[in-house]
Amino acid sequence: MPDEALAERLASVQGDVADAIRRAGRDAATVSTIVVSKFHPASLVRELVGLGVRSFGESRHQEASVKAAEVSDLDVEWHFIGQLQSKKARLAKAYARVIHSLDRDSLVTALSSTDDSVDVFAQVNLADDPARGGVPVADLPGFIDRVVGTPGLRLLGLMTVAPLDVEPRSAFARLRELSEQVQQTAPGATSLSMGMSGDYAAAILEGATHLRIGTAITGNRPPHG
Ligand SMILES: *Cc1c(COP(=O)(O)O)cnc(C)c1O
Q1: Could you read off the pLDDT of 155-189 as tens digits, one per residue?
Q2: pLDDT more than 70, % of the chain
Q3: Which residues, 6 or more positions from 206, have their beta carbon under 8 angstroms from its beta carbon?
Q4: What lines the ligand 1 site, CB under 6 Å?
Q5: Helix, strand, or coil here: 190?
Q6: Cα distance between residue 159 and residue 14, in whole Å
Q7: Which numbered atom of ligand 1 lies nearest the CA of 101?
Q8: What is the DSSP annotation of 56-101?
Q9: Which amino acid residue places its CA nearest to atom 12 of ligand 1?
Q10: Residue nearest to atom 13 of ligand 1 (CA)
Q11: Is the pTM of this model over 0.90?
């Protein structure tokens, strides 16, 4: 049976996204929504595909690879958005169209290839807490040089998670400024992966191109280990 509440939440978020795009005076074609399906079963992905969703985000390799295999009959695009171990990086590339969480030299090395390529975002840490993942702002220029100089990586742009103690819109404005600097050495890196359930409207106003929205669409995540 179709889950009406799910369809309603999806429609409601899509409406809010469209409103924010209009308020920002932006073109709707420049903003895509990735539905974060982490901790939810493959059946939820299947239902959302039935509602017209194509892009999904996952944050753990083991879970993502199993889920991707379970819906391999569907036309789905996977985005890897969580912290990735270097030794799992090549495996993630097998199903992920885009890796949003490139944040370490070891990961750059692990993903480098002369045979194939993967789309990536460099994740930036705008918090003072190193545990949150992402490249510290001070290290970003060197990191970008490294990514740009590595075969097999196509840098789409920058990704961030707004820090808890900062007004999200100012964090997103900061990422946009950093993106302008990065584009001086990586002109193609124009995309911005930012905006989650609680702050996607602010992200759109600051130029987000890839929204990563979970609970506002899926409902609460089931408990996980
Ligand atoms: C879980 C997660 C999201 C989605 O978070 P919601 O608050 O459920 O929308 C987005 N980005 C990253 C990196 C995540 O880990």
Answers
A1: 999 999 999 989 999 999 999 999 999 999 999 99
A2: 99
A3: 169, 172, 173, 175, 176, 192, 194
A4: 36, 38, 59, 81-82, 161, 196-198, 212-216
A5: coil
A6: 21
A7: 13
A8: EEES-HHHHHHHHHHTTTS--EEEE-S---HHHHHHHHTTEEEEEE
A9: 81
A10: 81
A11: yes
